[in-house]
Amino acid sequence: MSSIRRWSGPVATLAVLVVLIWRLGTGPFIGGLEAVDGRALLAAGAIGFVTTLCCAWRWTVVARGLGLHLPLRAAVAAYYRALFLNLTLPTGIAGDVHRGLSHGRDAHDVGRGLRAVGWERGAGQVVQVVLTVAVLLILPSPVRSSMPFIALAAVALALAAVLLGRLRGRGSRWTRIRNAVVTDIRAGVLRRDALPTIVLTTTVAVVGYAVLFLVAARTVGVTAPISRLLPLALLAVLAMVLPSVAGWGPREGATAWVFAAAGLGAAQGAATAVAYGVLALAAFLPGALVLVAGWLPRARLPEGATDG
Fold first, then answer.
1. Is residue 212 assigned to a domain?
2. Nearest to 232 by CA among 152, 138, 126, 143
3. What is the total count of domains within the chain?
4. Residue numbers of the domain that contains 218
5. Which end of the chain has fewer surrounding CB within 10 Å, N or C?
6. Does 3 fall in a domain?
7. Could you tell me the pTM of the whole model?
8. Alpha carbon distance 292, 81 (integer Å)
9. Rounded distance, CA 104 to CA 24, Å?
């Protein structure tokens, strides 16, 4: 069973790419690669810095709530490294696991380090979903008619989670797990000095990813107005949280579908997704430098030497 779960993601990703190439040919993929120019790469670098800074800031806030010390400078470096690994390794979460383990080892509490990363990512994705639903309720998109039902379902799910957290019980393993989860969420995410920062940093990060998507669309020659592209960008960015192989698969499939549904053509959607992938890799390339720096031996002072 574990081997099936391990291979299901890569197989599904490969199937999506095979179907896209079969239906669209290799032209959109090659075109997306060739369209990327220096200006787009510079914009990607600037956007990547802002989004990474915001996500790292969010991580420090959640970690502090769980009792872990995490300087912002170290968090930014670790987040760059994690994003680079997410974009170059299978599953799309290898980098997050790595930063959770590394921080946990440094703090002498691996479990808490992993939990801090999990709650930070989870809180960010909840805010991202809320923002996406809000925009899709306002602006026209292929899924606008379904958004009221999705919004109601999201509200119902949130209420169910709150009620579940308020249930009382004694002695059972489930109760202990639930109590631990509720304690983590209250301390790491919902405390008064944390939640506004989490919402603000996530909002800026999501806007940054959407802007990077718009840059990719303009780079491959998509001329549709921003008001028409923004809902598609948020849908595509939301699909990128799904398991993938080095970022490929869900991004291309979702973007091709939403572009086709919006009347812009699946080929332009696939080309935009490919260009986005190249720009994202360029934006988070500093993570490779952080990774290499971590492999280099650190200079040590001779015994008896002092900083003075």
1. yes
2. 143
3. 1
4. 22-290
5. C
6. no
7. 0.88
8. 10
9. 45
